Amino acid sequence: MEVHQVRYALAVAEQRSFTAAANLLHVSQSGVSAQVALLERELGVTLFHRTSRGIQITPAGEPVLEQLRRAATELEQVHAVADELNGLLRGTVAVGAVAGLAWPPFFDALQLVHDAHPGLDLTLREGTSALVQEDVAEGRLDLAVVSWPRQPRAGLASWIALNERVTAIVAPDHPWAQRTDIPPAELLDQPVICLTPGTGMRTAYDAMMAAEGLPTPVAWEVTLPTTARALAARGMGVAVLTSSRADPPTDLAHIALLSTHAASALGVVWRDRPRPSAATRAILAALRTHIGVTTEDT
């Protein structure tokens, strides 16, 4: 059994396609198919059913692929230990972030590691806080910068970089622009602009309104905070977003929401079991240096 055969089989299982697996691995589709066939012949187990609709994992293939995943993880740990002993940082570290995060210290941290360790392959994937945390928990990402209203996903180690407030954001000529605060109930009288479900911001808004015993209407449901601010700037409604030093400067008016539940956090999550690789720990250390730590929650 060759290591590359294991990698090919796991890629096919993840992508449910020989072609997609080949594209992911940057090899030919015929090469992937031939090597997986050799692996199946050696193991005496058919791992995949090839059908017109794609690839299906066979019942016998499920436990074999699970064991192959464990073996691949153990092999990665062996390389990580060897690199650490040699003072090297190599391999791939997959970083996640909430979509639209435009916070310079985050990118400064990535640049620091990228420049200091040219042999390290850094990748970045954006998404909603819920999906990004799921990817960290399932091992598809090594760490991520995400937001949460009360606590991050169970089972993940974390620290908080910023404690944020949920605020109403309006155009300078909006009737509320000169107000310093409003009760959340007044949001019911305005078209609310908020992010999509699964984002930390939407979760924080829903949690605040639920705690106040109020419904959570959203007239404009958008993907990015920049879109929400653009709509608010044009008088299309009241954007409900977090307010912190991670936000880009604008001339929009920020109005505090009078609720003890109008809170959210921006922080870092990762898996601490098994122990993160030396490369992942280097990125965590850079993030601590550049974005800081408000409080620990491991």
UniProtKB/TrEMBL annotation:
GO terms for molecular function: DNA binding; DNA-binding transcription factor activity. SUPFAM superfamilies: Periplasmic binding protein-like II, Winged helix' DNA-binding domain. Keywords: DNA-binding, Transcription, Transcription regulation. Pfam families: HTH_1, LysR_substrate. Gene3D superfamilies: 3.40.190.290, Winged helix-like DNA-binding domain superfamily/Winged helix DNA-binding domain (1.10.10.10). GO terms for cellular component: cytosol. Residues 1-58 form the HTH lysR-type domain. InterPro entries: HTH-type_LysR_regulators, LysR_HTH_N, LysR_subst-bd, WH-like_DNA-bd_sf, WH_DNA-bd_sf. It comes from the Bacteria. PANTHER family: HTH-TYPE TRANSCRIPTIONAL REGULATOR YBHD. Belongs to the LysR transcriptional regulatory family. This is Transcriptional regulator, LysR family. It comes from Nostocoides japonicum T1-X7.
